[in-house]
Amino acid sequence: MNHSIEPPIPGIDDASEMSPKELTYLYDPLCGWCYGAMPALEALRIGVRITFVPTGLFAGARAMDANFAAYAWENDRRIAALTGQPFSELYREQVLRPGTAFDSTAATRALVAVGVEAPERLFAAFKAIQHARYVDGRDTSVAQEVAAVLDGIGLSAPAARFVAADPDILAATRDQVTTGRRLMTTYGARGVPTVILSTDDGDRLLPSQLLYGDRETLLRQLDLA
Length: 225
What we know:
Elements: E1 22-27, H1 32-44, E2 49-54, H2 66-83, H3 89-95, H4 105-117, H5 122-134, H6 143-152, H7 156-163, H8 167-186, E3 194-199, E4 202-206, H9 215-221
Parallel strand pairs: 1-2
Antiparallel strand pairs: 1-3, 3-4
Helix pairs in contact: 1-2, 4-5, 4-6, 4-7, 4-8, 6-7
């Protein structure tokens, strides 16, 4: 197994320990394309170990305005057409409302906390936070809202740790974001999602468009078909 991607990060998905292939998935929880890629990741979970690494791409408060909301909604419609992932009118009205914050800090810390406390639940937590935002129209830039999502799926312990700004969770978030940004630089990635495939033959970027196309093509690319 190639071990060039360091250091190990809590949050490895629940594929077989014997899987000869690993994916490092660089993400931001407010990235619509990351949401669009989730069905593809779901299809890969049986045969590939997936490590989720945050990049902090959308961390830091930015106020939603009409222009950015229109751009985001147009982009979201493209994602929906390609992937079938739903973006609701509630999301458009409540999350893309001018004056709301666009900041992935809370959701990133929450997912890091889940990775530390209950790594086997990380994929489920990621899906729940995305569903809360894009379908239920809940503002996942707000820490208490994200904590409520985690509470709702039985992850009260990591919710409490991230809301309380647990020093270990803050440090783990900094470390993981640093790793994510370093990997983006190393591989020349310009955005998220970025997927790095590791096999016995080495590491390489997986073309991100494969995450939005035919599942059989994706599986063949990974020699899983």
